[in-house]
Amino acid sequence: MTAGDTASDTPAAPVIHARALAKSYPGGPAVRGVDLSVAAGETFGFLGPNGAGKTTTIAMLCTLTAPSGGRAEIAGHDVVTEAHQVRRHIGLVFQDTTLDLGLTAWENLRFHARLYGVPAAAARERARMLLDLVGLGGRRDDLVGTFSGGMKRRLEVVRALMHRPRVLFLDEPTIGLDPHTRAQIWEHLRLLRERERITVFLTTHYLDEAEHCDRIAIIDDGRIIAEGTPAELKTVVGADRIELRSSDDRAAAAQLRDLFGLEATVTERGLSVRVADGAAFVPRMCAALTVPIESVTVVRPSLDDVFFHYTGRTIREEGGR
């Protein structure tokens, strides 16, 4: 450290840290040497298809199953030798509901708070605040068995936050929910993250959900095959795709070749051509072509394209759970 440096210049230790994390079962390896580093306050997505190792990884990080190899720390505590301390720092929402349907929302939250030693008065106030934040304040004393799937999921997120964890783990948090409810869940998660200043680690196979994350790791067959921000990952795919229909697609293709040096593919749906920046290119193209254009669509590279780039398969083809 130089004379001008201060303690604040030192990068903060990651709140989630794993090196060569592995898990094997009698049928074979499920996770093969995963490295992870997640900073405090990040929303980190673990994206992959069915059987990729997402849930097994989250189970190791949450002390639910011991690694076969490697090591991991949560908030500086080893997940094997300091499992009790790790559990104090994490909240977990499972794929399937673990709420007691015969209790009210408040009774479910109170039971969880007692397990973590949260004083009764503090638990009541925290429950009130969190339930209001996710739109369940008016259902506090209703039986959970009367709740919709989306309401149960919101309540499980609230329960996981009752003891003020540093990290919230979400294993496929919106699986089985309709698109409108999924969007609502994500809006509530955004508000909770801002309010709680918490680190979020989620597994998902929904590509649109992964776009909400600050960074993503793509896992396949137990190995991380790519990691970065959504924008960074898409750069490996390359150019945007322009899809257009015209009054004479073959003439338009010839003009694209002569004017811009671009080779367009003619399909039964029209023309398809790759360019570096579709949004910037479309106005130039429309001004230059003399063939009347009927429709233009700019298709940006997607995370599914990234997965295909590395594996030759798509996540949509593989499924998620």
Plain-language structure description:
One of its GO terms (cellular component) is plasma membrane. Its main location: membrane. One of its GO terms (biological process) is daunorubicin transport. Keywords: ATP-binding, Nucleotide-binding, Transport. By secondary structure, this protein is α/β, with parallel strands linked by helices. The protein has 2 domains: 221 residues, Rossmann fold, CATH 3.40.50.300; 62 residues, Alpha-Beta Plaits, CATH 3.30.70. It contains 12 helices and 14 strands. The protein has a 6-stranded mixed sheet, sandwiched between helices.
List the helices and strands and how they pair.
Blueprint: E1 16-25, E2 28-38, E3 43-47, H1 54-61, E4 69-74, E5 77-78, H2 83-89, E6 90-93, H3 105-115, H4 120-133, H5 149-161, E7 167-171, H6 179-196, E8 199-204, H7 207-210, E9 215-220, E10 223-228, H8 230-234, E11 240-246, H9 249-260, E12 265-267, E13 270-275, H10 278-288, E14 293-299, H11 303-311, H12 315-318
Parallel strand pairs: 3-8, 3-9, 6-7, 7-8
Antiparallel strand pairs: 1-2, 1-4, 4-5, 9-10, 11-13, 11-14, 12-13
List its traits.
single chain; 321 residues; alpha/beta; Rossmann fold; Alpha-Beta Plaits; 2 domains; six-stranded mixed beta sheet; 14 strands; 26% strand; elongated; disordered N terminus
Unreliable sequence segments: 1-8
Count of helical regions: 12
What structural class do helix, strand and pairing data support? alpha/beta
The overall strand count is 14
Adjacency order of strands in the biggest sheet: 6-7-8-3-9-10
- Fraction of residues in β-strands: 25-35%
CATH architecture of the largest domain: 3-Layer(aba) Sandwich
Oligomer status: single chain
Biggest sheet architecture: 6 strands, mixed
Rg is 24 Å
Give me the CATH fold name of the largest domain: Rossmann fold
The overall pLDDT, averaged over residues, is 91
